[in-house]
Design brief:
By secondary structure, this protein is an alpha/beta fold. 42% of the residues lie in helices and 18% in strands. It comes from Paenibacillus mesotrionivorans.
Amino acid sequence: MKKHIFDTIDRMSPVLKETSLFIGNHPELGHEEFQAAEKLTALLGELGFDVERGVLDIPTSFIARYTSPKPGPVIAFLAEYDALPDIGHACGHHLICTMAIAAAAGLKAVIDETGGEIRVYGTPAEETKGAKVPMSKAGLFDDVDAALMAHPYHTYEHSGTSLAMDAVQFEYFGKTAHAAANPYEGINALDAVLLLFNSINALRQQLESHVRIHGIITEGGTAANIIPEYAVAQFYVRAGNRPYTDETVRKVIRCAEGAALQTGAKLKVTNYEFSYDELLTNKELSETYTRNLTALGIDPGAIETGKDHGSLDLGNVSRRCPAIHPYVKVIDEKHLLHTVEFRDLALEDRALEGMLFGAKALAATAYDVLTVPGLSDSIRQSFRASVRKEADGSS
């Protein structure tokens, strides 16, 4: 049966590669992925999936379903297809989305015999306002037995962890004045932003080592001879778990309030992107994926320990259903994600072959969930235990 899955993916390789290259060569930012969404949903429709577009009124989102006449577990493959500003698909999302469709197509070839349901979730804007956040909140993953995706990289990694993250914006409102003639009549909003940066830098020493805080100034004045009346800073505040992320954000906000007091500026604090929770990798599901990876010929010693590579909205999904996010090797050169070097290499044929290999591992894992006695129940029990543990740690 697994050979039938793999043969199906191999037969589809020309159209799958063409789909990935089209999306890779036509990068679109989050919530603007209209060409990518159209390309993916059209292919899923041709493959016999029922496609629901514009889920939760998110124009470029979708859920594609195929349900076997026989009952069985629900398998979700997650597709991401947004690009990065200026540097395009430097995170390999053109590979991720096509890998999801390839895995779904392979599994569809056997699911009428095994029983169960396949879903492909089209989840826009992972890099910013990730659609998995409102989808999770709306309960769209609550009945899923296994949520699967793999991320392209320069090596193989087990599904590991990620950092919880809040995107916090600080707006300071001051008062203009002539910077030479009467600066004493002004309130310098830019000074408040600079004090905020300095306060955060002083705060770092008192924070745990897994915390990351990084920010930019998006507004800082219009002319050097005018006291800036408006200034804005945006920060990502990340930590290894949601409770400590929340605690760190509270400390950063106190820094911002202190800067406002020192300068006399007024302060407004908002979230400018969605908050992401840390990933709770499902151990049993991850081990099942690793067994299939090695069965496909990967030396277990070549699979590295899962690391955190930042933040991802799959973390929110992992609190609603069992989920994994391993890394699959698609290039040989050690180039980190979000670089133009990775972007260019991820368009080469060897990267496309790595994408198809990852799809086979995902589809084989899903097949095991559908057919191995007791595996789906074990995965669900492990999921409940991890969520319970997380809740106990938060209380």
